[in-house]
């Protein structure tokens, strides 16, 4: 296979050049060169590559015909009958997706049979992927031309066809999408009133600046009943959210006097605000709330007319003021209520979130020391610039024992990673003389560096490593001092363990500073060793110019 880099390949900077051996082949064109972001070609399999390229060309050819087939019937249709037995004329067949259920089954059978005949019997490859010797536009099939004989011209035409086919695939996907949504593949879709997106344009909630907003396509089926049910549900949720927002704010300034539950001796003033109240309200109180809402839902609120959310109760649902008679004013108020309800739903979600995290729905959460986020602020590892970083909320339970165990595990992983990082670098410059295994005659100098060493170290060596690590874990570093995660009284670099230091670090502030430094370095080392492992696995070496490592599976 010709692998001379093409102009497209040459335009790319080194770090963007495709990581495969297929530069210069069909489809490698400027400005992208050989574009393979998913790495389909990294296995280097030439036959698989050719098969994929041929499939791509075929899809492009079908897409080009499909695109023309979308456009041509807008201006021209065959005269006469498509199916005389069904009295179906070509002129009766609509354009685009609507034609799918109009074309008779026998017509689909002919299409499939014709494509199958071309694929299985007629088209036989004569060289490059996509070259069946049929010349320009395949006209050689009907005797109007032969194969393009000049290899350079043929490659140029196949490349142009591939590029046009890629464009056509995007074009036909866009046409399908717009046709499915609007009823036509082009023109101003606002003119196509049959589109499901047009069905609800005059309905409640279609407001500036967004207009009709339905990114998930819930209304694509055009079902008016479902649309109105969803809109009514949205209004109800918005009304509840507005009351909930007021219910969060009001108890900060005012609470009812007297008892919430005389039987339990529970006063309204005893109930905390926000989420903390959920566990304080008695079961009978929750039953009353549910019963009250159910009564309203089933017996009191009855829709008036065909308007979503209109129960004839007037402003604020007070009823005492009477219903809003004017249709335009009523629609305006319902639209305003819907917009305010949407805002309230976002607001109450934000309140729930901040309350759950900090213990209060507003204010400076640093003042709320009861928040689980405050529990570990003075612990090892809480350092600038990030401070206490726990995006997954692992410390949200406030369990000090779990927190310390996780911190100790993190310190240990960091220590192992620092040694591993050093262990990756040192053998590049120095190796222990002599034999690693006298029995097997393996010298230290014969061991490769990095991941390649995993399969070379004898099993007894692995046993010694695991045994040493286990002994250190169980017998040596098995007791924390001063209840500090990671402090085993071993001093700098753990040297006290081998008798080089008499004591550990005695001064608490200095010890905490050193543990914090070690934790930060360990975090960096964990990132470093992961990067080394990744690059070593991909390229055969953890650093250097990986282009030099031709044994890499990406080469």
From TrEMBL:
GO molecular function, one term: chlorophyll binding
InterPro entries given in the database record: Chloro_AB-bd_pln, Chloroa_b-bind
Gene3D superfamilies on file: Chlorophyll a/b binding protein domain
Lineage: superkingdom: Eukaryota
Binding annotation for chlorophyll a 1: 213, 237, 337, 340, 342, 354
Keyword terms: Chlorophyll, Chloroplast, Chromophore, Photosynthesis, Plastid
Binding positions for chlorophyll a 5 per the UniProt entry: 234
Subcellular location: Plastid, Chloroplast
Binding-site residues, chlorophyll b: 239, 297
A cellular-component GO term for this protein: membrane
Example of a GO biological process term: photosynthesis, light harvesting
Full protein name: Uncharacterized protein
Organism of provenance: Polarella glacialis
């Amino acid at each position: 296979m010709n692998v001379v880099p093409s102009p497209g390949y040459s335009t790319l900077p080194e770090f963007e050049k495709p990581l495969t051996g297929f530069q210069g082949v069909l489809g490698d064109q400027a400005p992208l060169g050989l574009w393979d972001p998913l790495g389909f070609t990294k296995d280097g399999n030439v036959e698989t590559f050719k098969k994929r390229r041929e499939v791509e060309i075929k899809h492009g050819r079908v897409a080009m015909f499909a695109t023309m087939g979308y456009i041509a019937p807008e201006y021209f249709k065959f005269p006469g009958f498509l199916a005389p037995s069904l009295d179906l004329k070509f002129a009766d067949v609509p354009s685009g997706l609507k034609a799918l259920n109009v074309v008779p089954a026998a017509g689909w059978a002919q299409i499939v049979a014709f494509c199958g005949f071309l694929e299985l019997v007629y088209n036989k490859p004569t060289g490059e992927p996509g070259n069946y010797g049929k010349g320009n536009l395949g006209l050689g099939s009907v005797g109007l031309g032969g194969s393009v004989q000049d290899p350079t011209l043929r490659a140029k035409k196949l490349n142009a066809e591939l590029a046009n086919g890629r464009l056509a695939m995007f074009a036909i996907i866009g046409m399908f999408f717009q046709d499915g949504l609007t009823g036509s593949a082009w023109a101003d879709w606002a003119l196509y009133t049959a589109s499901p997106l047009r069905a609800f344009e005059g309905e409640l909630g279609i407001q500036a600046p967004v207009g009709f907003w339905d990114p998930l396509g819930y209304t694509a089926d055009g079902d008016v009943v479902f649309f109105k049910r969803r809109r009514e549900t949205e209004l109800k949720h918005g009304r509840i959210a507005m009351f909930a927002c007021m219910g969060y704010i009001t108890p900060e300034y005012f609470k009812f006097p007297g008892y919430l539950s005389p039987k339990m001796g529970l006063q309204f003033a005893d109930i905390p605000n926000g989420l903390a109240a959920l566990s304080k309200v008695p079961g009978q109180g929750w039953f009353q709330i549910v019963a009250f809402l159910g009564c309203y839902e089933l017996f009191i609120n009855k829709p008036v007319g065909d308007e979503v959310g209109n129960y004839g109760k007037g402003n604020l649902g007070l009823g005492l003021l009477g219903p809003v008679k004017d249709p335009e004013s009523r629609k305006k108020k319902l639209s305003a209520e819907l917009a305010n309800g949407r805002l309230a739903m976002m607001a109450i979600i934000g309140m729930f979130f901040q309350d759950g995290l900090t213990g209060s729905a507003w204010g400076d959460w640093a003042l709320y020391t009861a928040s689980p986020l405050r529990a570990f602020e003075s612990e090892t590892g809480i350092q600038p610039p990030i401070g206490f970083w726990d995006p997954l909320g692992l410390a949200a339970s406030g369990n000090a024992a779990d927190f310390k165990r996780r911190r100790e595990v993190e310190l240990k992983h960091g220590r192992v990673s620092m040694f591993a990082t050093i262990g990756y670098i040192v053998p590049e410059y120095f190796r222990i003389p002599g034999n690693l295994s006298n029995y097997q005659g393996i010298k230290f100098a014969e061991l490769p560096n990095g991941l390649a060493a995993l399969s070379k170290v004898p099993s007894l060596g692995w046993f010694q490593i695991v045994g040493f690590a286990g002994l250190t874990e169980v017998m040596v570093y098995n007791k924390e001092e001063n209840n500090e995660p990671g402090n085993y009284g071993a001093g700098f670099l753990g040297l006290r363990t081998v008798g080089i230091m008499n004591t550990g670090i005695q001064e608490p502030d200095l010890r905490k500073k050193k543990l914090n430094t070690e934790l930060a370095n360990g975090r960096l080392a964990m990132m470093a060793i992961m990067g080394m492992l990744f690059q070593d696995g991909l390229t055969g070496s953890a650093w250097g110019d990986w282009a030099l490592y031709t044994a890499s599976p990406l080469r």
